[in-house]
Structure formats: C-alpha cells, structure tokens
Amino acid sequence: MSVATRPQLSHLRALESEAIHVMREVAAEFERPVLLFSGGKDSIVLLRLAEKAFRPAPFPFPLMHVDTGHNFPEVIEYRDRRVAELGERLIVASVQESIDTGRVVEETGPRASRNQLQTVTLLDAIAAHDFDAAFGGARRDEERARAKERVFSFRDDFGQWDPKNQRPELWNLYNGRIKKGEHVRVFPLSNWTELDVWEYIDQERLEVPSIYFAHERPVFQRDGMLYAWREGTELIDGEEVFPETVRYRTVGDMSCTGGVRSTAATLEEVVLEIAATRITERGETRADDRVSEAAMEDRKKAGYF
Amino acid sequence: MTLDLLRFTTAGSVDDGKSTLIGRLLFDSKQVFEDQLAHVAQVSERRGGEGALDLALLTDGLRAEREQGITIDVAYRYFATAERRFIIADCPGHRQYTRNMVTGASTADVAVVLIDARKGLLEQSKRHAFLSALLGIPQMVVAINKMDLVGYAQARYEEIVREFEEFARKLKGGKNPRQTETTYLPMSALNGDNVVERSALMPWYDGPPLLELLEQVEVAYDHPHEKPARFPVQWVVRPANGGGDYRGYSGQLASGALRLGDEVAVLPSGARTRIAGIDTYDGELEEATAPMSLTLRLEDELDVSRGELICHPEEAPTVARELQADICWMAEQALQPGSRYVLKHTTRAATAVVDAIDDILDVHTLERTAAPESLELNDIARVRLRTSAPLVFDPYAANRRTGSFILIDEASNGTVGAGMIMAQAA
Questions:
Q1: Contacts of residue B414 in chain A, CB cutoff 8 Å?
Q2: Total CB pairs under 8 A between chain A and B
Q3: Nearest chain A CA: its distance from B217 CA (Å)
Q4: Do the Cβ atoms of B75 and A148 come within 8 Å?
Q5: Which residues of B, range 126-165, sit inside 8 Å of A by Cβ?
Q6: What domains lie within chain A, and their CATH numbers?
C-alpha cells in the first residue's frame, strides 16, 4: 500500500473547499436561492463560506431567518449586527405573523413550543419569495435521518422530503433540476462534524453569540434538561427556578433548547469541551428530538429544516 | 503527513460483520456517544435482542429501515483519530446494491472489502471488489474477517488470499482498466483483532491493523504536481458596483497544480493566456493545488464562461461530442437506445443521446455479453453517446473528476445514470 509523504491540505481546508464548491454550484444553477441564517454556529460558518465563495462581489442571494419570537435576545442582537457588518439583505419570516394571520395555531400549556410551527412559516416564506434553493447548516453527524440525506436534498411542491426516494448523488456532480413550485435544500456542511465547526470558528476567529460561552442565568430543570427561565415561563408543579452557570451547544427556541453546565468561556475551551464530550449535541440539548425514535425524520418529511 | 481527510466505503450485508466493524471503529475512536448507545440498547431490548447491542441500529437511520430491519440507503459516518479524519460511506447489501455501492464508491479513496473467513470469497464480496475497481477507487483493503471462528489459522487466511488474487487478476485482465492496489489483512471485528490494536493471536501476520492502514494510505490528492491541472470554471465573479473592472473565474481545482504566470488554455475554445492572479478570500497565492477552491484572474480579456475548462496547453484533455462510456443504470425505467437525457459533466450540462449499447457486464462472471435491447436498474453497460455541446474530458481511469458524468431524466428530473468515460467514440 502506498504511503504519502508530503503535507497537503488540512481536513478543515478540504471541507471548506468542498462547501465552497457546493455554494457556487447553487449560485450558478438556481435562479432564486436563499441562505437560512439563524445566528447559530452552523449558519455562522455558512456565512463565512459564502464570503469565501463570492467576495469581492455581494452574495448572489439574500439571507433569511425564521424567527419564532422565542429566540434568545443575545442571538437576535448578534444576527442583526453580523448582517449589517456583511452589508447583505436579511429577510425575517415571523412565526408570530403566521399565528396572527391564522396560518397556524399556537400550542398552549407549560410545554408549548413553536418548534413545529416554524415549518409552516418557512414553507410559506419560500413560496412567497419563490425561492428555488435554500442553504441550511445541517450536518450528517447530527442525527440518524440526516446521516442519509443528500447535499442537494429535493423537496416536492408541498415542501416534503421523501427519504426512500432520494436522487443518487455521485462524485461532486449535483442534480439541481426541479419543476416550478419545488425546491432544493442544500447542505454545504453535510460532511462536517460538530468539532469541525468549532475548530473552523476558532481557525477563522469568528464571533459567535455570547450564549455559546459559559454564563450565569436563571434556569429550571425539566425532563433532565436545564431550560432558560424568563418572564412568563409556565412552570409545572415542583419545578423551581435557580441560578446556574451554563452554555448552549445549539441555538434554537428558548422553549425547547437546553443549556449544559459548563465553565468554557473561550473558543479554545469550547473546542476542548466538545472534543471530550460523550453526549451528542441534539441528545444533550434538544427536546424536539426526544418525542419519538424518528422525530427528526418525521419533521423533515413535513418540510422542517 | 498525508491529506488528513480520508473517505472509504464498506459494503455488505448484516451477517458479514460490517456493522460490527463500523461499530468498533466508531466505538474505539470514541465516536459513539452515550445517548446513542443508550438508544441502541433500549431499542435492541425492545426488539427482544438477548442483551447484545445491535450496532446496525447506529447506522440505520430511517424509520422504514428500523421497522423492517434492513438498510435502504448509503449512510455517512464520521470519526477521527490523532492522525486523520475519516468519512465512511456505509453501503447496504440488500436492495439496490449496485446503485448504492456505486454512489458510495464514487467519492471513496479506499474500499474495505469484508470476507467471512468461514465462507471464503462469496458473490457479494466479489461484486464489492469489482464495483470498487470499476469506480476507480485507488486502494482496496481485503479484510478477512471472523478469523476467531477459524481458529486464527494462517493456512485458511492464505487460502482466501490466493482465491482473491486469482479473482483480482480476472478483474484486471483487460475487462476492467482501472488500477487498484490491494492489501490483505486477517481480522476479527467482533473481538477487535487487528482492527485498532494488533492481534496477539495472529503473530504470523506482520502488517499493521486496519486503522493504522487507513491512517497511512495515500489519497488521490497527495501528489498534485504529478497530475495535469484541470480547472472547470464554475462561476464568473464580476462585482456589479464598487468592484472596478475585476473579473475572476471561480472553481475547484479538480486535479494538478496551477502557478502564477503559467501559460494556460481555455477549452473548448482553445484560447491561450496566462494566469495573472490566484485569489482566495484569505489572500493571493503563488500556487494552488487540488482540491482547493479558488478564483483565477487571466492576463487577457477573454469571454470565459461556466462549463469551460482551464489547463496547461501541453497537457490538454480531449474535446469531443461523441464518447464511449461505462454507465451504471439507476432508474426503474429502462434505458432505450435513442433516448435523450440531460448530461452533467464537471460544471457543464448538455443534452445527450444514447446511440447504442455496445455490451453489458455480468457482475457475477465479470464477462461482457452481447448488448440487450435496453438497460434495467443496476445494469452496467458500455454505451456510445452524443452530446449537444462538446465535453472537455479525460478518461475516467486517468481522472475521476473530469471523466465522470451523471444522466438526468428530462421529464422526472431524477438522476438515472452514472457514467465513466472511456474515450472519444470512433
């Protein structure tokens, strides 16, 4: 077996190059792409990759955030600052508006979440703007159903994903052909792991929202997770609010994203913590994946991110 | 040091130890997390497993797969060691075997072919080896597994190695042009013999364990200077305002290396110019090597567009509209000679008509037989096709990136065929 001798690209550079290639394919082959930007770490990496793919020109697509109205304020503040820095256009699709116009009905009770409602808002916005491709930051290492998803993931005219009938994806040749009303979700970070994302953020010295670092905030414990308490949170009998030093591994809705006890206050410390962790990102922090054995697959089939 | 990202395929059915091997690689490199393991344990128990963890549950992600206990689609798995990052394309051995295997193999640097030491070289391992060679995977590791069940016997191992070598000679005997280097290894994935740690029970084997092999093996991009430069133009950068007269050609270097000042040709037009700049977001470069994504500036103002290819003029690829290719048919709907498809090759799309099916390959006997009327799902055949625009290509055996294409059905938009170019058609 031949053994190589010369130093080549680091794995982060190889993953970066692959992702840039994917983004440029989309820009070249679609008429109206959009990049979904949540202010979370994965979409922060997407923005840097878009800079690498398209500068010195502006991005050939707008950014879009599906705002549940239950986001961490630190993340919204970061989102607006980053968009202004880049000088790009941001569209905000609002779940509150979907509720107000009667497109969706808000769940009630202490376990109410707007997570499911986002899908309707997202699909409505894609249809309203006539988007034919949407970049997302999902990774295959996140979850079992995602491990099987294509880089170019086809959605029918109802926004649905059909996991049993995916287009084969070979070499670096992506099939972006669709009919009117259909669209493609594109995942340039498909082959990245959570650790790759953090190492890349560190390498590129990217700013991330402050909630990714250890901080003290009022929390309460539910189903083994630590949730942020804020004015208006409905508690269930026996639950108590107490101060805790936590950080977030994922940025989602305040209502369904748990924090982890952590003292990691710098990027280097976060990278070390992720390298040593024994629990997956979604398993540790996302209540939405705990609903059933195939919770993510079911939501994805319906058009979720 | 090597490129520290390696992609490899495994293929096979449940009982040949593939899941156990992947489970062990993930587990021993600490890539299986506690919540995943708890989940596997919980589901294994609910299914009535006898306390044994069903590691296939780690890779079988879709509801239908879990319900039916089968694997439908290629799954991608990730793990890392101090030496390298690995991507496993885990190809199921059941339905649509060929289609899945070809998909997984298309991007792989190494194929790990598993053979059950009790059973010897079976049909499925042969097909895996054959498809790996057809898809031009440069390195093959033949892991003779379940050595614990044959008493770790050297004689049995050597018998299987001889059997495989005979088969491999047939693979290379003119029927299949792609060179693959083969390494053999005795293993017990279940007990961890020669997976991560060298086995004390097989002192007669003096090679490295599997993981060490995978950490050291060479990948296609390791010697970019030895290969001709191929730069398919993907995207033209022309800032609308404030960018002055900047005009750059973006793309991913498919192979080789380009240097500032190099004389280059733009194909198919044949125009010549020099490289005036190699731009990246992180600054200008003196030299770029594959597989970097970059933006080229050219000395002369040429009208270069997406789909054209930049290379050194003395190492130019073929430009032609009629070609001969091996294709793997991936659709339920048969391919009939005379049908039209959209063909995507590098960054160019064209219309293609399949003029003739020359012959078809029997993946069981490796014999080529007379052409059938049409091609069915999973068939592999040699065809001749014509394209509406010239393609700029290399034979697949010389360059996987510039020698491959996909066929797309114009009506359904489905990806229906995978093609590997042999040569310009006579």
A1: 167, 175
A2: 206
A3: 5
A4: yes
A5: 139, 141
A6: 11-196+294-301 (3.40.50.620), 207-289 (no CATH)
Q: What is the spatial distance between Cα A33 and Cα A43, in angstroms, rounded to a whole number?
A: 15
List of chain A residues whose C-beta atoms are within 8 Å of the C-beta of residue B63: 293-294, 297-298
DSSP-assigned letter for residue B314 = G
**Smallest CA–CA separation between B130 and chain A, in Å?**
18
Q: B5-222 with B318-424: one CATH topology?
A: no
Nearest Cα of chain B lies from the Cα of A292 at a distance, in angstroms, of: 11
CATH node for B318-424: 2.40.30.10
Transcribe chain A into DSSP letters: --B--S----HHHHHHHHHHHHHHHHHHH-SSEEEE--SSHHHHHHHHHHHHHHTTSPPSS-EEEEE-S-S-HHHHHHHHHHHHHHT--EEEEEHHHHHHTTSS----STT--STTHHHHHHHHHHHHTT-SEEE----TTS-TTGGG--SEEEE-TT----GGGPPP-BTTB------TT-EEEE-TTTT--HHHHHHHHHHTT----GGGS-EEEEEEEETTEEEE--TTPPPPTT---EEEEEE-SS---TTTB-BEE----SHHHHHHHHHH--S-HHHHHBGGGSSSTTHHHHHHHTT--
Among B250, B327, B402, B410, which would you mutate to test the A interface (most chain A Cβ atoms within 10 Å of its Cβ)? Answer: B250
Domain limits, chain B:
5-222, 224-315, 318-424
To the question of domain B224-315 being in CATH 3.40.50.720, the answer is no
Scanning A31-60 for CB atoms below 8 A from B yields 51-58
Looking at domain B5-222, its CATH architecture is 3-Layer(aba) Sandwich (3.40)
Task: Name the residue among B3, B223, B250 with its Cβ closest to that of A9.
Answer: B3
Q: Which residue of B has its CA nearest to A54?
A: B237
| E strand or H helix at B75 | strand B75-80
Mutate to test the interface with A, among B7, B43, B72, B76 (most CBs of A within 10 A): B76
**CB-closest option in B5, B222, B406 to A170:** B406
* Chain B contact set for A275 (CB, 8 A): none
Contact A1 B216 (CB under 8 A): yes
pLDDT tens over chain B, length 426 residues: 345 889 999 876 556 677 778 878 887 776 666 777 777 777 767 766 555 566 656 665 566 666 665 566 788 888 888 888 999 998 876 656 788 888 899 999 999 999 999 999 888 788 888 888 899 998 999 999 999 999 999 999 999 999 999 888 877 654 444 567 889 999 998 888 999 889 999 999 999 999 999 998 887 777 788 899 999 999 999 887 666 788 999 999 999 999 999 999 999 999 999 999 999 999 999 999 999 999 999 999 998 999 999 999 999 999 999 999 999 999 999 999 999 999 999 999 999 999 999 999 887 777 888 888 899 998 999 999 999 999 999 999 999 999 999 999 999 999 999 999 999 987
